[in-house]
Specification:
Mean pLDDT: 84
Order of helices and strands: EHEEEEHHHHHHHHEE
Strand content: 5-15%
Number of strands: 7
Shape: elongated
């Protein structure tokens, strides 16, 4: 088996191999530490007790630095040698999840998923290996969001999707949300503005003008959703109408909205 000086760059350039080849690390002084390269993945390994091989994680989800640190820990503590392979920290997995899973998601949706996972999961578990985040950890986060049931449900969905993605990619063996039921159900809003409130909002929007006031006025006159109004471009708007091109609508069809005029 070859011995090479392992670096992040050298590992990234190791070609896929069938049968598997183990490249032993010649640069760290760690006996029995290396990276095993197969046809599909690269796995950090540590050989102890004359042949017992411990998997330390898959590259690039587990960095070389993290794998070496885990190898030192395993060598120093015989009881740790039977522990499951270390997963990369939650912050690295979330970053990769957003990059890969949401590569084609709309920017607003991707940003919202990033907000939910960063604010609620990474706040306490940024540096925690993903496979060491337990169901109890997730339940504690969800319990802390009981006063905001909508946020609670949205976080649950974002976390479940991320952990399921990580499990399918073999980053973890089981998701801590696997047997958890959704904490709540979305409730349709029953509160609507009265006629007097609508008049007050409309007149205030006329006074505020650009940009927020105009956004509200466009919503009143066209019934376009607020998110879509925020995506409007000047080229879509004329004095008589707003034209949403096919690539800007949900059903991929051009939509023409006539602008009504209202006199005070």
């Amino acid at each position: 088996m070859p011995r090479v000086r392992l670096t992040d760059l050298s590992i990234s350039k190791l070609p896929p191999s069938k049968p598997e080849i183990t490249y032993w690390d010649a640069g760290s002084g760690l006996s029995g530490f290396g990276v095993r390269v197969g046809a599909r993945r690269k796995t950090f390994v540590l050989v102890v007790n004359g042949g017992h091989r411990i998997r330390l994680g898959h590259y690039p989800f587990t960095s070389l630095k993290s794998a070496r640190q885990e190898a030192y820990r395993r060598l120093a503590d015989p009881n740790a040698r039977k522990a499951p392979a270390i997963a990369p920290p939650a912050s690295e997995v979330v970053e990769k999840f957003l990059e890969v899973h949401h590569a084609r998601s709309k920017p607003r949706w991707r940003k919202e998923q990033e907000r939910l996972l960063t604010r609620h999961l990474l706040k306490k578990h940024k540096d925690t290996p993903l496979n060491r985040i337990t169901t109890q950890d997730i339940v504690l986060i969800l319990d802390g969001l009981q006063d905001v049931p909508s946020e609670q449900l949205h976080f649950f969905r974002a976390a479940k999707t991320m952990f399921t993605w990580a499990r399918k990619r073999k980053v973890i063996s089981v998701s801590p949300l696997e047997d958890l039921e959704p904490p709540s159900k979305e409730v349709d809003r029953e509160r609507t503005l009265s006629d007097d409130e609508i008049v007050q909002v409309y007149r205030t929007a006329q006074k505020v003008k650009y940009p927020l006031g105009y956004i509200i006025l466009i919503i009143f006159h066209t019934a376009i959703r607020p998110g879509k109004v925020g995506e409007l471009k000047r080229s879509y708007v004329s004095a008589e109408k707003i034209t949403l091109p096919a690539d800007a609508t949900k059903n991929k069809r051009e939509l023409v909205l006539r602008i009504s005029s209202t006199k005070n």
